[in-house]
Design goal:
Blueprint: H1 10-13, E1 17-23, H2 37-55, H3 58-61, E2 67-74, E3 83-93, E4 97-106, E5 109-119, H4 133-141
Antiparallel strand pairs: 1-3, 2-5, 3-4, 4-5
Length: 156
């Protein structure tokens, strides 16, 4: 299907990305009252799941898309019931892998910056497999996807 007149071409849209909102829950916090570092990795995976769902291939990769690498810089603490924006963006697509950059922010202020690398595995033996052309195209060129927001109004 041809691109509509006046709309950006697939290449002009850029890498796939999405912003989701979540709240820091009681179970995300530790004895200090701030969130535990593992909560940020859960939020990163929630954003990755939302992106795969928006791109239409969540069911194709679910259960066979494990993390090969994950890292985070913790810039500011988050606390119980904080509303956070988690933005994930495809940074690179390899033959069998995808690298994401992720930011977790509160009120527009970055609290965590991270990076994840996931590998696409076959369904049976857990062997890395190349991205299908259609999925590669979506990861590399689908651009910003509609956000998954909890609130539209004032933030806390």
């Amino acid at each position: 299907m041809a691109e509509p007149t006046g709309s950006p071409s697939a290449a002009a849209r850029g890498p796939a990305s999405i912003r989701i909102q979540r709240r820091i829950e009681w179970s995300d916090t530790d004895a200090s009252g701030a969130y535990h570092n593992t909560a940020s990795f859960r939020l990163m995976e929630a954003a990755e799941t939302a992106l795969a769902e928006r791109l239409g291939f969540l069911q194709d990769v679910y259960g066979r898309h494990p993390r090969a690498h994950i890292e985070a810089d913790f810039l500011r603490p988050l606390f119980f019931r904080d509303l956070v924006d988690v933005t994930i963006r495809v940074e690179a697509v390899g033959r069998t892998s995808v690298t994401y950059s992720v930011e977790i922010a509160r009120g527009g202020e970055a609290c965590v910056r991270g990076r994840m690398v996931a590998v696409l595995m076959d369904a049976v033996g857990g062997t890395p497999q190349p991205w299908p052309d259609e999925q590669r195209e979506l990861l590399e060129h689908a651009g910003e996807q509609p956000s998954e927001l909890l609130v539209d109004g004032p933030r806390r």
